[in-house]
Amino acid sequence: MMDKNTEEKKKHSSAYVPYSPYRGVIPDYYPSVPLHWHREFELAIFYEGRGEFRIGDEFINVNPGDIIVIKPGTLHSTEKKGSRKLIYDTIVFDESILFGNHSERCYTDYLNIFDRDDSKITLPINSATPGYAEIKKNTEELFKSCYSFSGSGDLNVKIKLMQIFALILESETVNTGYSFKMSTDVIKPSIDYIRNNYSDKITVETLADQCHLSKSYFMNMFKKVTGKTVIGYLMQVRIDNACKLLANEHMAASEAAVSVGYTNISNFNRQFKQLTGLTPKEFKKRR
Fold first, then answer.
1. How many other CB atoms sit within 10 Å of the CB of residue 180?
2. How far apart, in whole angstroms, are the C-alpha atoms of residue 236 and residue 228?
3. Is the CB of residue 116 less than 8 Å from the CB of residue 183?
């Protein structure tokens, strides 16, 4: 678990605009970016100078044209190296731009690799990365859209981020503790069952039966394929759908909790904050 003392307090996203772009110039704007973490994704492209990025326990040298991706909850910092200024653009964005609903096929079969604790992107993304020219082109277009500060710009930001992350996947620079090409067909019946019945009482035994697997083998396979425990995935789907319900100003948190399968409002409130960083009441206000 990340130290709350190093969590960045600044809010980078809202329901209205789920991202924030920033231009960085070190040392003109600040001498360095100290070690911190936030709940959003971050993507940066470097234009001038040389720098050192710390991401988790890894130290990465960056040069002009390099691109960096930081997953939510990851400690990171930035420092300039050499005499020249380090100039870059960065966007910090809510995971909802990429993932949408965690029960959707594009998430369960494709994008969920970026949500796995054991996934790692080979960084920096540069000329040695397969498909780099197209990734760089889309990243540059992304920041043009960011700084338009308009509804059409917001739409283009979403489109470009989806294209960039699809290209990163195609470049095969994302690795996990197992081969991501492993067939997910074996657990798909359980994913479908959760998607269609998340508001009901669901047991691991029921899901294992859907896949015609023993309970222990199913639990192991589910974790390998999704990167989450069965309970963790079910919780994510329920909270995703609760967020949709709470977009209705007349929907009370207790009603939303019952509608998505919770019988204990305290558990709902705790798990809601665990996944969103907000209480249901705070979430409604942010809408």
1. 18
2. 10
3. no
**What fold characterizes domain 10-175?**
Jelly Rolls (2.60.120)
Sign of CA dihedral 123, 125, 126, 129: positive
Q: Which of 19-23, 122-126, 161-165, 189-193 has the lowest mean pLDDT?
A: 189-193
Domains of the chain, by residue range, sit at 10-175, 185-286
As a whole number, mean pLDDT of residues 56-74 equals: 93
- The C-alpha atoms of residue 283 and residue 277 are separated, in whole angstroms, by 9
CB 40 within 8 A of CB 72: yes
Domain 185-286 has CATH 1.10.10.60: yes
Cβ atoms of residues 79 and 50 within 8 Å: no
DSSP 160: H
Global pTM value: 0.70
Please, is 90 exposed, middle or buried when counting C-beta atoms within 10 Å of its C-beta (0-12, 13-18, 19+)? buried
12, 245, 262 from 21: Cα distances, Å:
9, 29, 37
Q: What are the CA-CA distances from residue 98 to residues 93, 147, 195 (Å)?
A: 9, 20, 19
pLDDT tens-digit series, residues 215-260? 999 999 888 777 789 999 899 889 988 988 998 878 999 999 999 9
Pair 68, 123: CB distance under 8 Å: yes
